[in-house]
Automatic annotation (TrEMBL):
Residue span of region Disordered: 1-36
Source organism: Actinomadura logoneensis
A Pfam family of this chain: TniB
InterPro entries: P-loop_NTPase, TniB
Highest taxon in the source lineage: Bacteria
Name of the featured protein: ATP/GTP-binding protein
């Protein structure tokens, strides 16, 4: 991939305000609630341009601190890059929504499956965000419309727990005496009223079809899928290996759901290396560090691959972490020393070659 075809940001830069407002989602409003989801959809972070050291020092202390806080917040949550996984999920999801629009039953869905940190939740939520924004544009006078519902499967879930997760998204109060049928009926009636068209079910690997509760939760999910005129998209860690397609229930899921694989980036062929380099360059273009010279990160793209094993989650952690340290230390650029200070996940460390890697060794990592 050449520079010209490098991936783009999903949330392009907007005009830079003096001190951008804090945009982080409050912990009390996770994505699995209507408020949290709405806020996520409407969010458009604005990159805070760095001031020169002199201009920064000239600011009153409180303004200076607020500015540095805002810059740290921005770098903790950099804009997303439009990766092949996101593009694949959005294309698949869009097509399924159209195919399902007039189906009265046996609607088709998709499952995003892959290792942890490959961007499954990110792709799932970006698909739904794009769908919701398009729906809002089509129905500007209908603020009650909630085209997306997002839930996660709790560990060791029961069917009632799953139904309560659906209800919680809508902010419905469920009393302890409400039985499964009551909760299900209430959810379905609210979902019909608000025109839910896309249902996201994350952490689907928590569904263990080999257990009684797991099988019952799967049946409950299927029941929701029959009753709600919506497209269901699941995401989970390596679902095939978790037995999601095993047995009679699993075979039915396999017959209705397309699998979109979320894989780490590879580094074997020239094309794969170009794709990784382009990802690094795009991520770098989102940085707002005073003394960072563009091209520094692409120059060490191979080393970044060695450190992260091609996992976008690890790369993102590395770059965001080093950027925050660059602001805190006043170094204002990403250096090798700062990258060394960022704690990485075990999976990435396991992929890291012990000595300076040759291209041959990287090829081996890519095919692991
Ligand atoms: N397209 C992207 N651009 C920039 N950062 C990304 C992108 N996709 C994922 N990330 C970052 O990688 C990290 C992991 O992503 P995400 O949570 O989507 O992975 P996951 O596959 O759902 O992991 P898990 O299986 O552990 O739930 C997050 O910090 C996220 O911001
Ligand atoms: Mg996830």
């Amino acid at each position: 991939m050449s520079r010209r075809t490098r991936p783009t940001w999903l949330e392009p830069a907007q005009s830079s305000p003096e001190v951008p407002e804090r945009e982080a989602l409050p912990p009390g409003n996770p994505l699995t609630t209507r408020e949290g989801w709405r806020r996520f959809v409407g969010r458009a972070p604005r990159p805070p341009e760095p001031l020169s050291a002199e201009a920064l020092l000239a600011l009153p202390r409180a303004t200076r601190a607020a500015r540095q806080d805002a810059r740290r917040d921005y770098h903790a949550d950099l804009p997303l890059v439009s990766t092949p996984t996101i593009q694949k999920v959005i294309a698949t999801g869009r097509l399924l929504v159209q195919l399902n629009r007039n189906q009265i039953s046996a609607r088709r869905g998709a499952i995003i499956s892959g290792m942890s940190g490959t961007g499954k939740t990110t792709a799932l939520t970006q698909l739904a965000r794009a769908h919701e924004l398009a729906t809002r544009r089509r129905h500007p006078r209908d603020p009650e419309r909630m085209p997306v519902l997002y839930v996660t499967i709790p560990p060791a879930a029961t069917p009632r727990m799953l139904a309560v997760e659906f209800a919680r998204f809508f902010g419905l109060e469920i009393g302890p005496s409400a039985n499964l049928t009551d909760v299900t009926n209430t959810v379905c009636s609210v979902a019909a009223h608000t025109h839910v068209a896309l249902v996201l079910v994350d952490e689907i690997h928590n569904l263990n079809l080999a257990t009684r509760f797991g099988a019952e939760v799967s049946d409950q999910l299927k029941y929701f899928a029959e009753r709600l005129p919506a497209t269901f998209i699941y995401a989970g860690v390596e679902v095939e290996a978790q037995g999601l397609f095993a047995g009679a229930r699993g075979r039915q899921i396999a017959g209705r759901f397309a699998v979109v694989e979320a894989a780490p980036f590879a580094y074997g062929t020239a094309e794969q290396r170009n794709a990784w380099d382009a990802l690094v360059a795009t991520l770098e273009s989102t940085l707002r560090l005073r003394d960072h010279t563009p091209g520094t990160l692409p120059a060490i793209a191979e080393d970044l691959y060695r450190r992260t094993g091609g996992m976008i989650g690890s790369l993102s952690q590395l770059v965001r972490g080093a950027a925050i340290l660059a602001i805190e230390t006043g170094i204002e650029q990403i250096t090798d020393d700062l990258l060394d200070l960022v704690p990485l996940d075990y999976a990435a460390i396991r992929h890291t070659a012990p000595t300076k890697t040759s291209r041959r060794a990287l090829g081996e990592i890519a095919t692991l």
